Amino acid sequence: MPNPQILGRLTMDRHTELKKEGQLSVDDNIDSSLLELALGNRPNKHSALVCKLFLVEKCVKENHPKSVDAYSSALINYWDNLDPHGKYKGSYEYDENTGSVKGNPACAPAVQMLIKSIKNGLGGDKTTRNHAEAITYEDMVQWMMWSEGVMPNAHAYWTDWVCMTSSEQLLQVMKYLMMHVFASSGFTLWTRNSELCQLRRRHIRWNLSAPPEFPGLFYDEVNLTE
Fold first, then answer.
1. Is 57 helix (H, G, I), strand (E, B) or coil?
2. Helix boundaries (H) for the chain
3. What is the pLDDT along the chain (226 residues), one digit of tens a residue?
4. Euclidean distance between the first and final Cα of the chain, in Å?
5. In 3D, which of 210, 223, 151, 157 has the Cα closest to residue 29?
6. Which branch of life, at top level (predicted)?
7. CA 25 from centroid of its chain's CA atoms
8. Alpha-carbon distances, residue 160 vs 80, 102, 114, 163, 175 (angstroms)
9. Could you list the residue range(s) of the whole structural domain that residue 172 is in?
């Protein structure tokens, strides 16, 4: 069985915030009562999410990416053997209308995508790099702080044209704002500069519905592959 302490910490944090603030700071469409039972004798709509949290905790936070196969196998084995009749074996399906789960939550597409991402990150360390190392979040924060220090009112200038005193100032503001968008977009989309420059409107799909195990969530998709 996956380590229940991970789930315990998550539910405790949610209960603490609810008790202190009266509501969660972010509406994540997660039912706390169901979340507590996600590793119980009957999987629910949040069981696949808990599988992802378990893998992130072990493979990313605790830095054991090489053990992703072992951890994912343990998850699959847990659900496979949960029901004596094999109800939770095989392909995962969640029925939103009945709230019932069929198949193995660890086989959910979202979980398998995470496993693939972890393996891809692991495989990347074995290849010869012919490009710059990817920027870290800390590097991005430091760069943004420096940029804000050089031109702290760039966003205010852009929304209030009266503040502009010359065409040179307008050009400088445009340059800083463009770099803010370019750098943060490249970091978020995990693209190299040459790839980001090829981004066009046709590569973006807006407001897509998340998989069934994450009801009520929406996302945007960016695909640079022609």
1. helix
2. 4-21, 32-36, 47-55, 68-80, 109-124, 137-150, 154-159, 167-189, 193-196
3. 555 566 666 666 655 655 565 555 455 567 777 878 888 888 988 899 888 888 888 888 888 888 999 999 999 999 899 888 888 999 999 888 888 888 999 999 989 988 988 887 765 544 455 555 667 777 778 877 887 777 776 666 666 655 666 777 778 778 888 888 888 887 777 777 777 888 888 888 888 887 776 777 788 888 877 5
4. 42
5. 210
6. Eukaryota
7. 18
8. 61, 56, 43, 6, 16
9. 137-222
Residue with tokens 């072990």: 58
Domain count, the chain: 2
Tokens of 137: 């979040």
Contact 103, 93 (CB under 8 A): yes
pTM of the shown model? 0.52
Q: Return the half-sphere exposure (C-beta side, CA atoms, 13 A cut-off) of residue 192.
A: 7
113 with 151, same domain? no
- Tell which residue, 69, 134, 141, has the closest CA to residue 106: 69
d(CA 9, CA 36): 10
Amino acid sitting at position 86? G
Judgement on whether residues 218 and 145 belong to the same structural domain of the protein:
yes
Provide the residue type at 64 as one letter: H
Residue 6 lies in a domain: no
**3-class SS at 56?**
helix
